[in-house]
Amino acid sequence: MALTSARALFVIAAILGVSLQANAQLSTAFYASKCPNATNKAFEVVKSWIVKDRSMAPALLRLHFHDCFVRGCDASVLLDSTVANSGEKDAGGNKNSLRGFEIIDDVKAKLEAMCPGTVSCADILALAARDSMLVFGGLNYTVPLGRRDGVSSFAWEANNNLPPPFADFNMLMSLFSAKGLTTKDMVVLSGAHTVGFSRCSTLQQRLYNFSSTSSTDPSIDPSFVPILKSKCKFGSTGIIMMDQSKTTDTWDFNYFSNVLKGRVLFQSDDAIKRTAEGLKLVQAENKAGGPFTADFGASMLKMGNIQVLTGTSGQIRKNCRVVNK
Ligand code: HEM
């Protein structure tokens, strides 16, 4: 028994050691000598896009999430499919849904002009997520750098690793814990749904074809159902803002109060309060002047470290959409 627990401790320490080491390879000063103006330039380019269309900030935040959850933060989500519909971009949760690729291309082109072959697409994604939300308003956190770019992208991996909108608590937790993230990370990061929008097509099943006993998901607040149905009619191809509690899209903790009231868009949003642990976390984040933004930054830092390629692994792509020849 003692030997077993000692072994278990050793394994845990070894795992922790490896992950700490991996994190230690990223550094906020990574480009300080290689391309001193890289992070300023990336900020400037992202800012110019967000000033024109602030709805692109949530899109860039999501792009980084969808990158990190599929073979780590290696910019695999940016690769164009080489065989029709084979890459991550073409996976169910991504196709006709992810936005912002042209912004990443623009940042990349300008950084390549300044410092050829130096700044990875994976780092650009991480910076763009933070910088866009900084310009959007209210969110800021540190982004360590030094990720390198992967060379493969598979739709089936995205299908298996990205949480679907119908996920229940267990499914969410198995997908997040597979990435080394905790229940708190899962709850806090779901708070990203305080901004941005969804396609109405994503809500069709929950609103009109839920189950054999109830055409609409009974977990939705009954007074919220007509609102959702008027904004997303049967068969609608329109869009709907994630946070229906306000008219302007802002970074705030409203999402958690919407979760508690049953006034959220997806079953996955509703699911985060469906265990005692989840409920406690949702309640803790639902506070004016509370921990949400700081907690979100801390969880983004962890998410941005998932399975990063560093050192001589991978490559620095010249064009984020294609692997170097
Ligand atoms: C917890 C599991 C999650 C599920 C099931 C989920 C699912 C979704 C779905 C279905 C959409 C709408 C897609 C569409 O209709 O086109 C969406 C949008 C969005 N998600 Fe999530 N998401 C999750 C977690 C996250 C996380 C961790 C982040 C960021 C850290 C995030 C950020 C966003 C943003 C910002 C949008 C709006 C995008 C836009 O305006 O273009 N989501 N999510």
UniProtKB/TrEMBL annotation:
UniProt keyword annotations, A-Z: Calcium, Disulfide bond, Glycoprotein, Heme, Hydrogen peroxide, Iron, Metal-binding, Oxidoreductase, Peroxidase, Secreted, Signal
Name of the top EC class for this enzyme: oxidoreductase
Protein's job: Removal of H(2)O(2), oxidation of toxic reductants, biosynthesis and degradation of lignin, suberization, auxin catabolism, response to environmental stresses such as wounding, pathogen attack and oxidative stress. These functions might be dependent on each isozyme/isoform in each plant tissue.
Residues at the active site: 66 (proton acceptor)
Stated family: Belongs to the peroxidase family. Ascorbate peroxidase subfamily. Belongs to the peroxidase family. Classical plant (class III) peroxidase subfamily.
Signal sequence, start to end: 1-24
Pfam families: peroxidase (PF00141)
GO cellular component: extracellular region; plant-type cell wall
GO molecular function: heme binding; lactoperoxidase activity; metal ion binding; peroxidase activity
Organism: Marchantia polymorpha (Common liverwort)
Entry coiled-coil feature ranges: none
Enzyme Commission (EC) number: 1.11.1.7
Manner of cofactor binding, per the entry note: Binds 2 calcium ions per subunit.
InterPro entries (UniProt xref): Haem_peroxidase, Haem_peroxidase_sf, Peroxidase_pln, Peroxidases_AS, Peroxidases_heam-ligand_BS, Secretory_peroxidase
Sequence intervals crossing the membrane: none
Protein name as catalogued: Peroxidase
PANTHER family cross-referenced by the UniProt entry: PEROXIDASE, PEROXIDASE 72-RELATED
